[in-house]
Structure formats: C-alpha cells, structure tokens
Design goal:
binds NADPH dihydro-nicotinamide-adenine-dinucleotide phosphate, Rossmann fold, 11 helices, six-stranded mixed sheet
Length: 283
C-alpha cells in the first residue's frame, strides 16, 4: 500500500511541495503519494484528521505552511527541540497514537547555505532581518553553527529585542543546544555603522515590494545576502547587489527543508541538486 503525505495551507494552489516530493520519491524509489490540501482557515485540525482517517494506504505525515504552522505546533502531541525553539511546526509525522511535530525550515536554510552556496555560518557575523515566524525558526539552527555574532533587526524594534532575549535566556539552555553567542535584537536604525558577512532577509517585505531602510554598510566585504522569498527579484536583492554582495533567493531553502522532511519520514536523504535545478528552470 502506498504511504500518503500532504501539504496543508491556505492558499495552497501555488505550492511546489507536491512536485518536490514527487521528484524525491522517483529519485529514491519510495512508494508514496503527496497531495496539496486547502484547509479552511478555521478547519486545520479537522482537515488533518480527515486526511489521517481517509483513503487507501496509511497517512504517514504532512507538511504545513502559512497560516497553520502555529496551529500545527499545538496539534502535535510531541515536539522536537527545534520545533519548541521555533514555536512553529512545518512537518508532522503520524505515528501510532502520536502526532510528532518538527520544524525543518532552519535546517533547510543551513543546508542551503553550506552545501549549495558554500557559505558556512561558522565564524561569520550574521544579520537576520525580521522577527516573525520564519526568523524565529532559523535562530537556533544558525546559533548551533557557531557564528561570531547574530544580530536580529526588525521594523518593530521591540519584537526583535524580545526574540533575542528569549533565545539568550531560554532556548540556549535546551539540551544539546549549547551555543556560544547570545543574539542581539534591535531596530534597523541600530545598524548604522555595522558590517556583516551574511545578511538573511526573513521579512515578508519582498512580497509587498517594500524596500527595507538598511544602511548600505551592513553588506560587508564578500558578504552573502540571502532572501527567503523566492521566484522574484526583491528590493532587498537589488539593495544587496548594489552593495556588491553575493545574492541568493529562498528556493534552495524550500527544497532543503523538504528534503529534511523526506528524510524524517522515509529515512533516506534525497539529492537536492537535480531537484533544485529542475525547479529553477521553471521559476
Ligand atoms: P511573518 O508574518 O511571521 O513576519 C513578517 C516579518 O516581516 C515581520 O518581522 C515584519 O516586521 C516584517 N515585515 C513585513 N513587512 C515589512 C516591511 N514592509 N518592511 C519591513 N519589515 C516588514 O512572516 P514569516 O516570518 O512567516 O515569513 C517571512 C518571509 O519568509 C515570507 O516572505 C515567506 O515567504 C518567507 N519564507 C520562506 C521560506 C522558504 O523556504 N524559502 C520558509 C518560510 C518563510 P514587523 O514585526 O515590524 O511587522
């Protein structure tokens, strides 16, 4: 019997996840089905339970995207440390009597940086822009890589300060999460005169076409500028190019977080390069 998987979101029509997982399954010879499911905004848990109960073959897991990652966190009966740190779940595994929640976004970002872009966060001064769900999900995985500095800067300064404090005080004490650097939180104006080796845009400004009020100095020499949004040239990417940074978009993160989920579910790690190449051709 074919094992069943799905991605839940609203909207979900443009999700690339079914294509990515179909390519992973073909490459690794895994017998799975993977569908995109549009859940009503107030019907996420019901949609997941209906998926578990329905159809031929066992429902083994699901991905979760906007706006349900926090609800998936609450739905999980058990959560990994990185899901706890993220406060959000993007990967569910259905086990006997349990729903295990994980978050693979941070691991996806780190793998894209290290394996696809040759940009190891270790020893780098990192600037993380944004303090929403995406930023929160990548803080611990980035800290675990051993940067020399991690600054979180956000339009709303208090949110960045609160997030930095939360990680400094609490999550750094999770088992296995010994980190050497305490994150610092500030507004964009606090970045004047500061320089970084890796600047990650985890704001959604790129979706609305807005420009971030960043001083050009943040893009230090040989800086890598990473835009989590993919499939379009954003104002942040243009700002970074202007400052001679090397620019990447978030397509690699998307594919790598999916590969991490596939590994959790199937115990086999797919090669991401051919999948990334196939997607880049059409995006
Ligand atoms: P949230 O809504 O949780 O957070 C949005 C963040 O962006 C906040 O920090 C907000 O600041 C900031 N922001 C929004 N508009 C502006 C603006 N005009 N100027 C400055 N700051 C702004 O979103 P998420 O964290 O969930 O997602 C952020 C982005 O990351 C999205 O674009 C999403 O597509 C992308 N993403 C990509 C992934 C991938 O695999 N490539 C995975 C996950 C997310 P404030 O607090 O001041 O409101």
């Amino acid at each position: 019997m074919t094992d069943r998987y799905a991605v839940f979101g609203n909207p979900i029509g443009h999700s690339k996840s079914p294509r990515i997982h179909a390519l992973f399954a073909a490459q690794t010879g895994q017998d799975i089905s993977y569908q995109a499911i549009l859940a009503e905004r107030d019907g996420f848990a019901a949609a997941v339970n209906a998926f578990i109960d329905a159809g031929e073959g066992l429902a083994r897991g699901a991905n979760v995207t906007v706006p349900f990652k926090e609800e998936a966190f609450r739905l999980a009966t058990r959560r990994t440390a990185r899901a706890e740190a993220a406060g959000a779940v993007n990967t569910l595994s259905f086990e006997a009597g349990a729903i295990v929640g994980d978050n693979t976004d941070g691991a996806g970002l780190v793998r894209d940086l290290k394996n696809n872009l040759g940009c190891d966060p270790a020893g780098r001064r990192i600037l993380l822009l944004g303090a929403g769900g995406a930023a929160r999900g990548v803080i611990l995985p980035l800290l675990l890589e051993g940067p020399t500095e991690l600054v979180i800067a956000n339009r709303t300064e208090e949110t960045a300060a609160r997030l930095a404090l939360e990680f400094a005080n609490s999550f750094a004490r999770l088992p296995g999460c010994a980190v050497g650097v305490k994150p610092d939180g500030m507004g964009f104006q606090g970045l004047a005169g500061r320089q970084f080796d890796l600047v990650i845009n985890a704001t959604s400004a790129g979706l609305s076409g807005d420009t971030l009020s960043l001083p050009a100095c943040v893009f230090g020499p040989r800086c890598v500028a990473y835009e989590m949004v993919y499939g379009r040239e954003t104002a942040f990417m243009a700002q970074a190019r202007e400052a001679r940074a090397r620019v990447a978009d978030g397509l690699g993160m998307l594919v790598e977080q999916a590969a991490e989920a596939f590994f959790i579910w199937r115990g086999v790690r797919p090669h991401t390069a051919p999948v990334l190449a196939a997607l880049a051709k059409v995006s």
